[in-house]
Amino acid sequence: MCGIVGYIGEQQAAPVLLDGLAKLEYRGYDSAGMAVCDNGEIRMVKATGRLKVLEALTKGGSTLPGTAGIGHTRWATHGSPTDTNAHPHFNGSASIAVVHNGIIENYQKLKRKLESRGYHFVSETDTEVIAHLLDRYYTGSPLEAITKVMHRMEGSYALGIIFQDHPDEIYAVRKDSPLIVGKSSAGNLIASDVPAILKYTRSVYFMENEEIAKLTRDDITFYNIDEEELEKEPTEISWDLSAAEKGGYDYFMMKEIYEQPKAITDTISPRIRDGKIVIEELGMTDEEIAQISKIYIVACGSAYHAGVTGKYVLEGMARIPVEVDLASEFRYRNPILDEQTLVIVISQSGETADSLAALREAKAKGSRILGIVNVVGSSIAREADNVFYTWAGPEISVATTKAYSTQLAALYLLAMKFSNVRGTITNEELTSMIEQLQQLPRQIEFLLGSHDRIQKFANRFLAADHIFFIGRGLDYAISLEGSLKLKEISYIHSEAYAAGELKHGTISLIEDGTPVVAVLTQEELYRKTISNIQEVRTRGAFVMTVTNANHTDVEKNADFVMYLPETNSYFTNSLAVIPLQLFAYYVALGRGLDVDKPRNLAKSVTVE
Ligand code: G6P
To answer: Domains in the chain, start-ordered, CATH in brackets?
Structure first.
């Protein structure tokens, strides 16, 4: 799970590489490196730590001359984050340099074989195997060496490669890890993701599995693994670079929290036409929708939490049984699936390794796969039978906010569509729900206006050791997300509990002053959760509640209350998540942490 870039053109390569890497730091940021070809020699600099260390070391790239090079920002998988393990990696004579994103699953076997032939390894990485393997098969043709190596490697890889003997070429290779190629008048580029090259071009080729690209200063040629030339068409990127930059906010996370009204509007409005839900990309006839016997929702992290909300909404509204599973569990548990089962895979990046593997498992069993994906052209989007794109735009902060909110919106639209087709809601109910759905962006804007109040409250918990979240039904689903948001960026231990389950253990952890966040938006469960609040308060808990505006009586039982505007009871999580995101953000900010780049985490988890 790393970011790679490459450049060949008329400009000095190193500054271009640093520029691109800065846009890819969200993919990993424990070390970085570059290799540049200059006067028939490959020179390399790498450094442990954030990109700014590499920037300082190379004086913004100026100490590394040359107009063709590759760069890498790393998130360690094999071997700890050290200078030696940082990329690029080399063959013994330093004539071939490689940057890699992914995992070579059979690297130990390959390493043993290479060692028995006298190859000497310096790092603990799987990537170094690629450099030595290329050396082993290189007899003058880079393409031939690359394809031979591809035949021997198992696992996932996006690669950038330079050969000292071919100083006017860089090579890109892709299998199961994202890689794009950009063509510009200033030269040609490769990158793990679009923002890295948007400054130079909007004309982008999405590489497919087992494809190779050869880039020269003014040409790009694509090949398959049989060394046959391929014809590929570029895609014009329509979104702006400013969409991938902070735009005046201190952190991307805050910018992305504020982008939620727009992201939700962009996701729902193309799917509402003349008072009806129209989801053309679903590719399902009404008959097929009527025949769905079961839905599995499979995802990781916050996307899984969106799925938990989806279960309550789809079951409640459309009366279809729904099971939600973590992709890492689903893929190994031999799930019972058939052609009437719809499997929904939710993923912001569309590249999460476990979610992709779960998709393949379900596909092999004959189920229809619907991807709810944010990144266009990503692996999950390409492999699903149908894709429902969430239009959140690029999300940079590791902790997701706007992508999560658009996933909720996508699930509501699906539930409304299925319910309408299956006759579990009337046309009048649908009309009223559509109106309520369309009001969500404005209501979120209203809630964002309370950020000062939430910041003041959050500042009281900067030294907390534990914070608990409780709720029932949909309020439990949003508690899971509120708790994850807090722990991932503030490093405060936090757990979410179904409020009714408290008595079975967790309540023993409540002491004088323990912060508890209680969510109560479901009218029929309100009294039940109030009883749970009373139980924790009796034991000294300090309680924040998030509830509906009509429940001012909650103030008797709470130390701080956030009121939500009125909406349909199925949509409350879209509103409740706002104070929870702000709370997590301000606690992390108050603790002086790097909100966008929490330790040990990465945005796109492309390894198992
Ligand atoms: C990482 C991110 C989370 C995200 C999860 C799943 O853990 O930090 O924000 O929810 O991966 O990612 P996906 O791209 O599949 O939604």
So the answer is: 3-238 (3.60.20.10), 252-447 (3.40.50.10490), 451-590 (3.40.50.10490)
